[in-house]
Amino acid sequence: MSKERPTIADVAVRAGVSKGAVSFALNGKPGLAQATVDRILAAADELGWRPSSRARSLSVSKAFALGLVITRDPGVLSSDPFFPAFIGGVESVLAPRGQALVLQVVAPGEDEEAGYRRLAQDGRVDGVFLSDLRHEDPRIDLLTSLGLPAVTLNRPEVDSPFPAVCLDDRPGTVAVVQHLLELGHRRIAHVAGPQDFVHATARTDAFVSALAEAGLRPAGVETSDFTAAGGIEATKRLLALPEPPTAIFYANDRMAIAGMGAAQQTGLRVPDDLSIAGFDDSELAEFVHPGLTTVRADPYAFGEAAARTLNQLVDGEGPVADLELPPARLIIRRSTANLEDR
Amino acid sequence: MSKERPTIADVAVRAGVSKGAVSFALNGKPGLAQATVDRILAAADELGWRPSSRARSLSVSKAFALGLVITRDPGVLSSDPFFPAFIGGVESVLAPRGQALVLQVVAPGEDEEAGYRRLAQDGRVDGVFLSDLRHEDPRIDLLTSLGLPAVTLNRPEVDSPFPAVCLDDRPGTVAVVQHLLELGHRRIAHVAGPQDFVHATARTDAFVSALAEAGLRPAGVETSDFTAAGGIEATKRLLALPEPPTAIFYANDRMAIAGMGAAQQTGLRVPDDLSIAGFDDSELAEFVHPGLTTVRADPYAFGEAAARTLNQLVDGEGPVADLELPPARLIIRRSTANLEDR
DNA sequence: GTGGCTCTCTAAACCGGTTTAAACACTCAA
DNA sequence: TTGAGTGTTTAAACCGGTTTAGAGAGCCAC
What we know:
With 342 residues, the first copy, chain A, is α/β, with parallel strands linked by helices. In chain A, 43% of the residues lie in helices and 15% in strands.
């Protein structure tokens, strides 16, 4: 029952033309009589022929695929709201073009470099998305030397030959701080992400400088790791300070939700005793109790934009411009409240 | 600086042999003198040559890639703890073999069939994982007619020519019910997943029959959609019953956590007034307040097993047996408590 | 010396497309 | 009648591997 797939030669025979003619017709190249084109396409249709991407890949030296290497512990990845939505956005661009997305998950301990190397040297992808940028990110040089086109998610600090698609976290962060200030908070702390990540430090920096603008200093900044467990630890340390904060801004929702649980466990009421804000607007943020004030980005649109930009680069039609997406914005829910309300 | 990649011909010249010899040496085929093999491998090494997977694909008619089509709304996918971990497990098998994972995310409304068709007809993958099995799942027939090897995640109800890798949800579900019964609960309700999914009904059925075994009937069964919003709606309906449940078992953690928030919002205390249990043991389950009693499967191991099985099938060495993984098991936390404790 | 055997190795076909150079058919102008 | 020009089509090379049939070389036995 596994009918052999027809090849271009079958179509050629059926239409009474040469292989080359079929190829021309399929790709809309000029030089064929319209009648011939019609006849060829009809024959292809009748045979249900679709060109083998394997053969095409070989002859045009393109993979018709883009790659995404996710360097993250699979366990932690589970509850990361970013990638699934991002991938959805990427797919929405790739699918209509007949491209595929090649995914690679490497645990932090493993050889991340090897992941990119494999993708490049096997010629499996035409370009990759560079996410979770780090300071002095070695991957920029790696990809340059591999000759693999890439798009960076946000702008790296090192000199980069690659276009960047950017979603500025800072306005959202600043909005959180202002919101908390307006509510009367003065002792505001921050649970940051790992400081080797550019986006983590961006949020931290924006937080600190927004406070500075109001003449305040952070009530505490705890560096954590974006995980729920880490969020709890950081929360405990902050609450144990001689002058504990009245509000905490977390660098992601997961830490915020976990931190909120930890605070509640110690008997604190949120938001009466402690205001809490997160970052991501993950699905649960709206539905935990109380609903989490957070910052919403649009990872789906991020994925779309990144895929489009990477394709522009891969297609090689002129220089590719950086792209700035609408910034993340504040979503106010019940987890933050007026300091006087208690 | 983009040094042209060396080809097998370059290696052949350098080693002073024919292309065929290089191929033999690389693939460990017999018939070459050991000295020659060494010389060839050395030459390949010096040139940094790795065979192009494009060319290999074409000549051996294999893609060296497996496919996963995820039919789910990207927004909902965000907080699904299953796939990322599953993919991590798959990768752990694929990476050492030099295989790639091709991912496709299609929104429920879109043409899911087209997703599989593309993967098959483009010859992009050698086989696919069939997840989220549905009743009378049309994809079994589709893949059969496409001639695309597959492995099903759990056993489909329709006759299937594909091996199944199974992780039984029922023991975990039964354990939840028994746990709640032991705590003294008699009015136990269930928030189910969409009943067109096999795994959703499996949990529901196990729930109902476990209760029946104790001579009880469900205090209510609300079918929902695995989302946080759906979990809240279902919870409200259950709590509005004339005889509301004292315990609710949710078909996944996301609905459970959201439902817990909803219950708390109405003034109910968890677990004092209402016990809550989930399913998945997602990262947040441990850290919400109170910690969520739930059922833990091992999606990473699931991914490993599925990838191994699919590769066996693709490699075509004899019949492939179904595989049964250790069942999910109960994790008891603070969200469930003795009925008398209040 | 010849046939047969084993051990190495190579030339060439092949996978299924794309692309280039050239051939062919036809018209039109000189 | 010839030549140039235009439009259409094809044959063949090519992408970079794998695989098959067979060529040589060396050795042994008869």
